[in-house]
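Human: We require from you a protein record containing the residue sequence and its fold in token form, and nothing else.

Assistant:
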Amino acid sequence: MNLIFKYFPDLSENQIDQFSKLEALYAFWNAQINVISRKDIQELQIRHVLHSLGIAKVQSFKSGTHILDVGTGGGFPGIPLAILFPETHFHLVDSIGKKIKVVKEVAAALDLKNVTAEAIRAEEVKGEFDFIVSRAVTNMDEFVKWVRNKIAKKQQHDLKNGILYLKGGDLTEELQHFPNAKLFNLTDYFDDEFFETKKVVHIPLKKK
């Protein structure tokens, strides 16, 4: 919890309480439905929670914003972001039903009223969203095909509506078809070694 508070010192008492419960909740559910590797569950705060919150360092979401989290797994980046932005609505989707069960249980335990979750393929999701967030679920060409028609027209943030994607390594080849892509290095916000190659990729999209 100290790690989260180090980089996000202005949390409310309720947010501190919610973040502090994550480790025990995921340890409990992961023992029953394996959604996080054993190594990662021991480093949940940095590898999952803080990594997810890297998106918040790049763009702070306004009240009433709608966010779609594609391939959320056990709830990342959606759950940590939903704690940080209680006035923003998050819809978390994954094609694997047991992962969505964990998401729903964690969200209920934390009383996150701004989270909905659905076991569904990304292509089948209905609705429009200001941003679509994800953590490296597939290559960008494929991902854009899944989500292109789900972007809301109205702009209300510094960054244009589109994709905010957490990924690491050299992305030159993967992003060659996206000249408008902007990369934000997470080492600019977090000083832990884990973030050395980690980035947030922003790709603005217009609905077609």
